[in-house]
UniProtKB/TrEMBL annotation:
Name the UniProt record assigns to this protein: Gluconolactonase
Domain SMP-30/Gluconolactonase/LRE-like region residue range list: 14-254
GO biological process terms held by the UniProt record: L-ascorbic acid biosynthetic process
Cofactor binding notes: Binds 1 divalent metal cation per subunit.
Species of the source: Cedecea neteri
Organism classification: Bacteria, Pseudomonadati, Pseudomonadota, Gammaproteobacteria, Enterobacterales
Single GO molecular function: gluconolactonase activity
Binding locations of a divalent metal cation: E16, N147, D196
Amino acid sequence: MAEPQLLFDYTGHLPECPTWSAEEGSLYWTDILENEIHRYHLASGKHDVIQFSEEVGCFALRESGGFIVAMRSGIWLTNKTGLIVGKVCDNPSNPDLARFNDGGTDRQGRFYAGTFWGPGDYNGALLCRVDNDLTPHVIQHDIHGANGLAFSADGKWMYTSDTPNAVIYRTPLDAHGEPGIREVFKRFAQGEGMPDGAAMDSEGHYWTALFDGYRIARISPQGEIVEEHRLPVRCPTMVCFGGDDMKTLFITTTRENMDDEEVARLPLSGALFTLRVEVAGMEKLKFREM
């Protein structure tokens, strides 16, 4: 079985939202707490950083070029250098208490972004969607920390996780991609890790980063863990597929809230890893504007 490998010599604060660009042969990701989007070109090793004025919870590449970016105050369109070219909407949560977190695109090229409820006193976060015509909608509530967004290849299911509540949900989608009533897909017991960011492979298996679990897991459509890979860090945050054959899994990790002793003991916390897998993953589509 393949072992996770370091992508390159880098450690961030809270890397998230890895996104593969096949056209560029590059991996993008955000460091939420450093207000950055990163780009790493695999062939040359060139590493670029785009600085923003607020936390970048998640983003997607746009078909027209540049990014759609969910920052604390709202969702914005930018060019490829990060220059804001338009505002989509305000943060539908209270931006003082909830920043954007996980997100991505569905099979129609619409952008989803969920929030993380900072106070933690109740499930005050939500999941919103930006349609192709830039209309925003809040589509789910009752979330503590939105994560784990992924879509089945046939477009019939949306998967999400709520990390602090240690649960993965799935939601049926109609022919137009509109959500029905979500249901519990899998719960994790204390000590097993908490499901964070995720991706779907071409066989319909859901790959999740298990925050506080030292590993990533592949979960069958029936909700059974069928494969696990240990990491030399406690908190992986998200996975995505990429590479020429879409059989490379990219894994982000974090060192958020770790003291000096833990960082010294687990110095690769915040690094990015790769893992060769046997089943190709689903491509992340770009945001498609009308």
